[in-house]
Design brief:
The complex is a heterodimer. By secondary structure, chain A is α/β, with parallel strands linked by helices. Among the domains of chain A are: about 260 residues, Rossmann fold (3-Layer(aba) Sandwich); about 120 residues, 2-Layer Sandwich (GMP Synthetase, Chain A, domain 3). Chain A contains 18 helices and 29 strands. Chain A has a seven-stranded mixed sheet, with helices on both faces. Chain A has a five-stranded parallel sheet with strand order 4-3-5-6-7, with helices on both faces. Chain A is globular, with a radius of gyration of 24 Å. The termini of chain A are far apart. Chain B has one domain: Non-ribosomal Peptide Synthetase Peptidyl Carrier Protein, Chain A (Orthogonal Bundle), CATH 1.10.1200. Chain B has four helices and no strands. The longest helix of chain B has 15 residues. Chain B is globular and about 30 Å long. Classes of the chains: A alpha/beta, B mainly alpha. Chains A and B meet through helix 9 of A and helix 3 of B.
Chain lengths: ~575, ~80
C-alpha cells in the first residue's frame, strides 16, 4: 500500500499506484459468462492517458467539474482517473435517477463535461431537463452503435488526445468530488468532498480491511456511491488489488462471479444480504433431518470457536459446502448504505462468513464506524474508525441522543448552500440527525432518526421534499410528505415508510377516486421512493410568512394522532 | 414472429407462474413492484426467467425505470 500521508491528492496517489503496481491486474470486466476485459495497472494508465489529453485539449482545466453517469465498469474508473489527472473535480451521479433528475444535478453541480454510456445518453438526450443545463458543454458517450446520431455528443472511442497530458496537482483541502446525498426534487445537497477526506478515509478503512495485490473486490454497489468509490476504486488501487465489474447484476451471474474470480471482498446493501440469507436458509431447511442435525452441530462448533474473532480457515474447513459457492476465498462481506438487522449479521457470522457492518454518511466520507469483528457484535454498528471522534448530543437518561462526528473525513460543506452547511456542521462537528448511544465498550448502537428522511434497504436516502412534486395539483386543499418515523419515532432503523399527509377541501371525503389518483401518481415514482400510506388531517397546515409549510410544526401536530388509527395504507 | 400482444400475454403468464399469483390476475398496465410485492432483486430474477423463455439477452439498462408489464413487454419485443 502506498503511504498516503505523503500525498496531496487522489490523482497523485493513483498516478503513483499505476506505476508501483504496473504488472498487477487492476480490473476485470465480465458480462454474464463472458469476460470482456482484463487490464493491468499499466493498461489502465494507457487507456486513461488519451482521455485526459482529450479533456485538456477541450479546455478542461484545474477545478473544472466533470460528471460520470455510468453503470459499474472499467470506463467509469478510467474516466475518473483522467478527470483527477487533469486536476478536475469529479461529480459522480446515480445512473438510476431519471434523466431529468440527472440534468437537474448536472446543472446544480456546474459540470462542464459529462461522461456517460449510450443507453443512458439515449434517454438523457431527449429529456426536457437538458435545455436548462447549459453548463454542460461536452458529452462523451461510450459504447454507442456506429449508425446512430449522438445528438451533439462525442464518441468515447474517438475522444482521444495525442501526446502526453499534463498532470495537474491539487492540494488536500481542495475539492475532489461533489457527491449528491439527496435533493433531486428539493434543495440539492452536493457534498463537497476534499482530497484529504478521501486520503484519510482510505487510511482508516484499510487499517482494518487491508487490500493488497491478489485481493479481488467484487464491485456491485454503484461506483457513484461513497462506499464503492472507496472500496471499489481508490482503496484497492492504492494497494495494487483487483476490482471485478459485472455488467449484469442478475443473481445467477453474481453467484458465479464469486467462485470464478475467487472474490476476497464484496460490498452489498442489506436487501441483497437478506436475499442471500433467505437462499441459504432455504437450502438448510431442505436438508434431510439427519443431515440437518449434523449441520446444526457443526454450526454450533463454529460459533464456539469463533466467539472472540473470525477464524476463516477453520470455518471454511468446517462448513465447506456453505463456503465453496462463495469461491472459498471470501474474507468479509462489507454491508452498507443502510442499516442491517442484527439477526442477518449473526446468521452469516455463525456460518463463518464475517459481515462488516458499519455506519456512515456521504457527508462524513465513507464510514464513521465499522465492526472490527474483535469480537463480533451484531447489535452494534461497530467502533469509530481511527481518526473519528463521536459525541452523543442531548443524550437522554438512556444515553440516546443525536450522533455527531468530527474527523478529517467530514465534507467541507454543501455546494452553494452555506445555510444548510451551517446547520449540518456545528463547531466542526457533523450533526448526523441519527439517534444513537455509545456503549461501555465504545461500540455505537443506533436507535432511529431525528431527521425527516428514510433510508431504504437498497441504501437509498429518500427525503420527502424530493418526491412531493409528483403530487402537485392533487385535488385536495394541501398535502405534505413525511417519513413516518419522523412523526412517530419507532426507535428502529428498519421498515421505514413515507406517508402523505392530506388536508381535504371542506366537505371533501377521502374517496376511492382520490385514493386511485394518489396511487397512480405514486406509481410514477421509482419503486423505492413511493409513499406507503395516507394520513388525513383536518386543520390548516401551519405555514411561514412566505406560505411555506412549517414541516416541524405540522409533524408535531400529526404526532398527537394515534398512528394505528390514522395511517391508511395505500 | 410474436405480436406485442402475444409477448405481453406471455410476460404476464410467466410472471404469474413465477410469483405464484392466479393466472389472469395480472394486467399489462399493472405495476409489477406493487402488484407482485417484489423488490428490485426479485425483478432481476424475473428478467432472467423472461430471457430464458424468449431466448434473448435483456441488458439491465433496458429495464431501468420500467415498472409495468406493458413497457417491459415492449422492451422484450424490440429484441425478438
Amino acid at each position: 500500500m502506498l503511504d498516503l500521508s505523503k500525498y496531496q491528492s487522489i490523482g497523485a496517489a493513483l498516478k503513483d499506484a499505476l506505476e508501483e503496481f504496473s504488472n498487477e491486474v487492476c480490473l476485470i470486466e465480465a458480462d454474464r459468462e463472458r469476460e470482456k476485459e482484463r487490464l493491468t495497472y499499466r493498461d489502465f494508465k494507457e487507456r486513461a492517458r488519451p482521455l485526459a489529453k482529450a479533456l485538456q485539449d477541450e479546455g478542461f482545466a484545474m477545478g473544472d467539474r466533470a460528471s460520470i453517469i455510468m453503470t459499474n465498469q472499467s470506463k467509469w474508473l478510467i474516466s475518473a482517473y483522467a478527470i483527477f489527472y487533469a486536476g478536475g473535480v469529479l461529480v459522480p451521479l446515480d445512473y438510476k435517477l431519471t434523466p431529468d433528475e440527472q440534468w437537474q444535478l448536472l446543472k446544480h453541480s456546474g459540470a462542464k463535461v459529462l461522461i456517460t454510456e449510450y443507453p443512458i445518453w439515449r434517454q438523457m438526450s431527449v429529456a426536457a431537463g437538458r435545455a436548462a443545463a447549459t453548463n454542460v458543454s461536452s458529452v462523451v458517450v461510450t459504447e454507442a452503435p456506429m449508425n446512430v446520431d449522438l445528438d451533439g455528443a462525442i464518441r468515447w472511442e474517438e475522444f482521444r488526445g495525442n501526446g502526453e497530458p499534463i498532470f495537474v496537482p491539487r492540494t488536500r483541502k481542495e475539492v475532489a468530488c461533489i457527491v449528491y446525498s439527496s435533493g433531486t426534487g428539493g434543495r440539492p445537497k452536493g457534498c463537497m468532498m476534499t482530497h484529504e477526506n478521501y486520503l484519510e478515509q482510505c487510511v482508516a478503512l484499510t487499517s482494518i480491511y487491508p487490500f493488497s495485490p491478489g485481493v479481488r473486490y467484487l464491485s456491485i454497489l454503484p461506483t457513484n456511491h461513497a462506499i464503492d468509490f472507496m472500496v471499489g476504486f481508490f482503496g484497492p488501487f492504492i494497494c495494487g488489488a483487483t476490482v471485478v465489474h459485472l455488467r449484469t447484476l442478475r443473481p445467477e451471474y453474481v453467484r458465479e462471479a464469486f467462485s470464478k474470480y475467487k472474490i476476497t471482498y464484496v460490498s452489498l446493501v442489506p436487501l441483497v444480504l437478506k436475499n442471500l440469507q433467505k437462499g441459504l436458509q432455504t437450502r438448510f431447511d431442505e436438508l434431510p433431518a439427519g443431515k440437518r442435525r449434523i449441520f446444526n452441530v457443526i454450526v454450533a462448533i463454529n460459533k464456539a470457536l469463533t466467539k472472540s474473532r473470525p477464524r476463516l480457515g477453520l470455518s471454511r474447513r468446517l462448513l465447506r459446502p456453505v463456503h465453496d459457492p462463495f469461491g472459498g476465498e471470501l474474507r468479509t462481506i462489507i454491508v452498507g448504505g443502510a442499516f442491517t438487522e442484527p439477526q442477518t449479521l449473526q446468521f452469516f457470522y455463525d456460518l463463518g462468513i464475517p459481515v462488516a457492518n458499519g455506519y456512515g454518511l456521504t457527508e462524513a466520507g465513507t464510514a464513521i464506524t465499522v465492526n472490527d469483528l474483535k469480537p463480533f457484535r451484531a447489535d452494534t454498528v461497530g467502533m469509530p474508525l481511527p481518526g473519528m471522534e463521536i459525541r452523543i448530543v442531548n443524550a437522554g437518561a438512556d444515553g440516546i441522543g443525536e450522533v455527531s462526528v468530527r474527523s478529517k473525513t467530514i465534507m467541507s460543506g454543501y455546494l452553494n448552500e452555506p445555510e444548510l452547511t451551517a446547520e449540518a456542521i456545528v463547531d466542526g462537528w457533523l450533526m448526523t440527525g441519527d439517534l444513537g448511544r455509545v456503549d461501555a465498550t465504545g461500540h455505537l448502537q443506533l436507535f432511529g432518526r431525528k431527521k425527516n428522511m428514510i433510508v431504504t434497504e437498497e441504501g437509498k436516502n429518500i427525503y420527502p421534499e424530493d418526491i412531493e412534486a409528483v403530487f402537485d395539483s392533487l385535488p385536495v386543499k394541501e398535502f405534505c410528505v413525511f417519513a413516518a418515523n419522523y412523526i412517530w419515532p419507532q426507535r428502529s432503523m428498519v421498515g421505514e415508510q413515507l406517508l402523505l399527509a392530506l388536508h381535504l377541501e371542506p366537505g371533501q371525503t377521502y374517496s376511492e377516486e382520490l385514493r386511485r389518483d394518489i396511487s397512480a401518481r405514486n406509481s410514477k415514482l421509482l419503486n423505492y421512493k413511493r409513499i406507503h400510506g395516507v394520513v388525513l388531517f383536518d386543520e390548516d397546515f401551519p405555514r411561514t410568512a412566505s406560505l411555506k409549510i412549517k414541516r416541524n410544526s405540522l409533524a408535531e401536530q400529526l404526532a398527537r394522532l394515534d398512528r394505528a388509527n390514522v395511517f391508511l395504507p395505500l | 414472429m410474436r405480436t406485442l400482444e402475444q409477448t405481453t400475454q406471455e410476460v404476464l403468464d410467466l410472471a404469474s407462474k413465477h410469483f405464484k399469483v392466479p393466472a389472469g390476475s395480472l394486467a399489462p398496465e399493472d405495476d409489477f413492484f406493487k402488484k407482485l410485492g417484489i423488490d428490485s432483486l426479485q425483478t432481476l430474477e424475473m428478467l432472467s426467467r423472461l430471457e430464458n423463455h424468449f431466448g434473448i439477452e435483456l441488458p439491465d439498462y433496458e429495464v431501468q425505470g420500467v415498472s409495468d408489464f406493458r413497457t417491459l413487454a415492449a422492451r422484450i419485443q424490440s429484441r425478438l
